[in-house]
Backbone:
């Protein structure tokens, strides 16, 4: 089974207490893909400018990603600059340049329209809807968003939620969209909007999963040194969706295992800047850390 991911491919400038890196390859779709590729074939749908550089394109292809739907348009690539301080749980956005993202209309091949596993990573809900409308017979659709779209395109986002199976949000976003402070109540409220599965990311405190049959929570993998959390949530989603895409049946057992894989994948992401750590990951690396994670619950 393969998966198609729509999102951003960006050039990020990031500052943390451990240093500053300029114009790192990043973006929601890129971070998602580094984890999902360990489980299944990944088709990446995004747009970049002519300033993107062949080295970045070659790098993504070297990781086995299908870039047939990566548009290279005249103009500049989407850029984000952020700074982390204190506990590194949230970033202060210093600068955002949309560039070619402002005119992005996804294009996919006839063959890609048949893909049944779809992840709509963080981007404008109108762009997400545009891609979903092109797909022939989706079986598993995941959606991520952010506070900016909740505040500026709430109506469009709520409409889109009726067409997806999984909604991924951090705790602040879940509270903002549901209007509930308690995360269980927030998850129930979000589920009533359409998705049958809700994933609420809680940063260093792990993840909460909710559907009408069961609720499940996992802590984060204990990482000794967090360098750069940029893209950790997208990496988590990549591990989660990547595993489900190749699972024979989406059962409670499969969901719990997918959550564990996503959690472990995200733990690698935060150990270095950008994609440096996750781009070198193998499935064997993931399995070894998953075994250590399981040991945390043995008593």
Residues:
């Amino acid at each position: 089974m393969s998966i198609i991911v729509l999102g951003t491919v960006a050039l990020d400038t990031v500052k943390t207490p451990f240093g500053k890196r300029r114009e790192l390859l990043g973006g929601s779709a890129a971070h998602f893909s580094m984890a999902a590729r360990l489980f299944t074939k990944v088709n990446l749908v995004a747009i970049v400018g002519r300033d993107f550089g062949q080295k970045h394109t070659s790098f993504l292809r070297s990781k086995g990603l299908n870039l047939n739907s990566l548009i290279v348009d005249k103009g500049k690539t989407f850029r984000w600059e952020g700074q982390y301080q204190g506990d590194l749980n949230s970033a202060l956005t210093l600068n955002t340049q949309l560039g070619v993202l402002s005119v992005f209309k996804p294009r996919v091949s006839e063959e890609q329209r048949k893909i049944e596993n779809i992840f709509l990573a963080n981007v404008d809900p109108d762009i997400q809807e545009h891609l979903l409308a092109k797909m022939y017979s989706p079986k598993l659709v995941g959606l991520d968003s952010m506070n900016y779209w909740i505040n500026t395109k709430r109506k469009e986002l709520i409409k889109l939620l009726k067409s997806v199976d999984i909604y991924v949000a951090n705790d602040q976003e879940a509270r903002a969209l549901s209007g509930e402070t308690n995360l269980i109540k927030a998850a129930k409220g979000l589920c009533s909007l359409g998705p049958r599965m809700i994933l609420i990311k809680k940063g260093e405190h792990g993840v909460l999963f909710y559907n009408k049959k069961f609720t499940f929570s996992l802590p984060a993998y204990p990482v000794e040194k967090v360098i750069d959390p940029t893209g950790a949530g997208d990496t988590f989603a990549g591990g989660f969706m990547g595993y489900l895409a190749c699972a024979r049946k989406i059962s409670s057992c499969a969901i719990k295992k997918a959550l564990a894989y996503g959690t472990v994948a995200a733990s690698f992401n935060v150990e270095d800047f950008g994609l440096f750590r996750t781009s070198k990951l193998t499935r064997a690396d993931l399995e070894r850390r998953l075994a250590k994670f399981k040991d945390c619950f043995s008593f």
Observations:
- Residues 252-269 form the longest helix (18 residues).
